[in-house]
Amino acid sequence: NAGVMQNPRHLVRRRGQEARLRCSPMKGHSHVYWYRQLPEEGLKFMVYLQKENIIDESGMPKERFSAEFPKEGPSILRIQQVVRGDSAAYFCASSFDRGTEAFFGQGTRLTVV
Amino acid sequence: GESVGLHLPTLSVQEGDNSIINCAYSNSASDYFIWYKQESGKGPQFIIDIRSNMDKRQGQRVTVLLNKTVKHLSLQIAATQPGDSAVYFCADHPSGGGADGLTFGKGTHLIIQP
After folding, report:
1. By three-state DSSP, how is residue A86 classified?
2. Are B114 and B66 in contact (CB under 8 A)?
3. Cis peptide before A8 (omega within 30 of 0)
4. Distance of alpha carbon B37 from alpha carbon B35, whole angstroms
């Protein structure tokens, strides 16, 4: 049973471009969570999704950031018009149900140049 | 505002010794706490959790202690091994479970001396 898969592992974007980060949850998991980690910092919650629904987006920046988890396919975190401050590691986690143990992926390291 | 923080950014211990990593939290409503281990270049890995109705929980070589009076929890690792080298994060959740809305501390880097 493969774990949470994130791709790409590393992503370099120029300022103003779009970044698309993908997360495939563990098999059987329908709950997905996105976190951001700045250098030397802990993880910060961004958004919680269940299939086709955004449950909690209280940690998402109001502009340029969006997330989806379609019925088929991976969850996508999309950052439009990236800026240097978006450079961070973005982690996805999944769980079978809300309140059950969540498993994290290896993360996508975004660098904006 | 709510914060979860660790007392020391780096902890260096001798291989075979016991390690104690401390964490303070500020939200009295926090009901669920988790310790994660993060190795370089990897995602956080669940180690152990504890709910607010407990003050101690033991796992394999690890023990978590929770003191609600002073809003403090600690992670004890027995007989530290080289593979224990990592950054350790405490995280809390206000409603008892799940990974939505976890508040992470900044982490303690555990270094194992041979």
Report:
1. helix
2. no
3. yes
4. 7
The predicted pLDDT at position A74 comes to 96
Using a CB-CB cut-off of 8 Å, the residues of chain A touching B43 are 4, 91, 93, 104-107
**pLDDT at residue A99, as a whole number:** 72
Sign of the alpha-carbon dihedral angle for A60, B102, A35, B5: positive
The DSSP secondary-structure symbol of A48 reads E
Segment B31-37 shows an average pLDDT of 91
Put simply, the answer to whether B41 touches A56 (Cβ < 8 Å) is: no
Is the CB of B106 less than 8 angstroms away from the CB of A42? yes
φ, ψ dihedrals at A86, nearest 5°: -80, -10
**Residue B59 near chain A (CB below 8 Å):** no
Which of A45, A58, A106 has its CB closest to that of B43?
Answer: A106
Residue B82 backbone phi and psi in degrees, to 5: -55, -35
Decide if pLDDT at B74 tops 60.
Answer: yes
Please answer whether residues B31 and A90 qualify as being in contact, where contact means their C-beta atoms are separated by less than 8 angstroms.
no
**Whole-number CA gyration radius for chain A:** 13
Pick A48's closest partner by Cβ from B91, B96, B100.
Answer: B100
Is B46 within 8 Å of A101 when comparing Cβ atoms?
yes
Percent of chain B with pLDDT strictly greater than 70: 88
Q: Are strands B19-25 and B4-6 parallel, antiparallel or unpaired?
A: antiparallel
Query: What are the backbone dihedrals phi and psi of residue A98, each rounded to the nearest 5 degrees, phi first?
Result: -65, 135
Structure token pair of residue B61: 């070589």
